[in-house]
């Protein structure tokens, strides 16, 4: 058996490890109104297509609504995102759960908006919690998120050194150089996720700081304090909140800058718009390539034909789970080409 990716010592015997802790991931991708395990119902949106996945206990009626026919093939190919087998040993999984359980308590506590509030008094717990998620996303194959190799190693060292089997034993060592120049800022729209949908999404460009949205939280991780003085980065319009958020180090209580639901909604709409624009650019480029391969004249597909294809993809009335799959795109493209050639 492979060795545990965290302690690099014991066999990675644990199955079903969450990359984003379950108490948070269920707020992002569970079937609406469901908070239990195996109730995931999520969509992975990439440039080219949207794929989806579902937990074992999602009701058949819901699956029918999303996929139309529920075939054996659909069930067989389904894999819940963000859950991995044989990454960690049981001991490390327990150590991770200690900070997760402690952090989970903060979800229901009092919050403030348009100012900073203290979310967790004990220094370092919030820090370990957030970097453990960032690190797990980075080591997860195909997550699409990757730290630089030395940053990934640093986070592993910190997590492995300081996670303990009880919360009282967790204390940062002031002399540890790994902890000296690292910190984060956190923004949150409290309770947004109780009624509205949220994201797991990050910038693939920004590293100073790494910028990522996890549920109703927006996290900025700094590997150097000097990056606080860096260029403004427009992470979907969150810059002004980031400027107001306090910088949290491993030696300070965690504070969060609260934003209103309306502010998060604007932020969220910008992410959706970005996704839609990327999708259109991607498809447009693919159609030009196709045009070229088919021996068409010029570098670009005829603008009317292209426009008709993109319109049909956007208006496709197949079930949600089948709409933005490569199969449906190909079907629409070939049907449209055949039809317009006949005219
Ligand atoms: Zn381990």
Layout of helices and strands, plus pairs?
Blueprint (H helix, E strand, L loop, with lengths): L16 E2 L3 H8 L11 E5 L4 E5 L5 H8 L4 H6 L5 E2 L5 H15 L11 E5 L4 H15 L9 H14 L20 E6 L3 H4 L3 E9 L2 E6 L1 E6 L16 H6 L9 E5 L2 H33 L9 H13 L4 H4 L2 H17 L1
Parallel strand pairs: 6-10
Antiparallel strand pairs: 1-4, 2-3, 5-10, 6-9, 7-8, 8-9
This protein binds zinc ion.
Count the helices. How many?
Answer: 12
**Integer tally of domains:** 2
Strand element count: 10
Largest sheet: 6 strands, mixed
Give the terminus-to-terminus CA distance: 61 Å
Mean pLDDT: 92
Bound small molecules, deduplicated:
zinc ion
Strand content: 5-15%
Q: Percentage of helical residues?
A: 40-55%
Rg, alpha carbons: 22 Å
H/E series:
EHEEHHEHEHHEHEEEHEHHHH
Rough shape? globular
Biggest sheet, strands in spatial order? 5-10-6-9-8-7
User: What are the low-pLDDT stretches, counting only 5+ consecutive residues below 50?
Assistant: none
Look at the helices and sheets and give the structural class.
alpha+beta
């Amino acid at each position: 058996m492979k060795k545990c990716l965290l302690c690099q010592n014991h066999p990675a015997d644990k199955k079903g490890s969450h990359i984003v802790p379950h108490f948070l991931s269920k707020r992002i991708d569970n079937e609406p109104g469901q908070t239990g395990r195996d109730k995931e119902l999520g969509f992975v949106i990439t440039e080219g297509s949207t794929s989806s996945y579902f937990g074992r206990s999602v009701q058949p009626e819901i699956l029918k609504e999303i996929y139309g026919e529920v075939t054996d093939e659909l069930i067989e190919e389904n894999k819940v995102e963000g859950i991995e087998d044989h990454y960690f040993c049981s001991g490390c999984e327990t150590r991770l759960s200690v900070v997760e359980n402690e952090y989970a308590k903060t979800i229901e506590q009092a919050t403030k908006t348009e100012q900073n509030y203290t979310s967790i008094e004990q220094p370092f717990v919030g820090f370990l919690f957030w970097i453990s998620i960032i690190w797990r996303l980075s080591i997860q194959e195909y997550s699409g998120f990757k730290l630089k190799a030395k940053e990934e190693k640093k986070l592993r060292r910190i997590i492995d050194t300081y996670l303990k089997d009880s919360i009282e034993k967790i204390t940062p060592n002031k002399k540890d150089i790994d902890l000296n120049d690292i910190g984060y800022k956190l923004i949150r729209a409290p309770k947004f996720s109780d009624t509205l949908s949220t994201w797991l999404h990050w910038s693939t460009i920004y590293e100073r700081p790494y910028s990522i949205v996890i549920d109703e939280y927006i996290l900025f991780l700094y590997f150097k304090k000097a990056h606080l003085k860096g260029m403004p980065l427009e992470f979907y319009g969150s810059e002004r909140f980031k400027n107001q958020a306090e910088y949290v180090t491993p030696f300070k209580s965690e504070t969060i800058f609260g934003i209103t639901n309306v502010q998060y909604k604007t932020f969220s709409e910008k992410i959706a718009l970005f996704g839609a624009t990327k999708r259109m650019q991607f498809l447009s480029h693919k159609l030009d390539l196709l045009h070229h391969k088919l021996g068409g004249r010029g570098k670009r597909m005829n603008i009317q034909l292209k426009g008709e294809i993109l319109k049909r993809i956007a208006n496709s009335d197949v079930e949600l789970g089948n709409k933005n799959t490569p199969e449906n795109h190909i079907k629409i493209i070939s049907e449209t080409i055949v039809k317009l050639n006949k005219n």
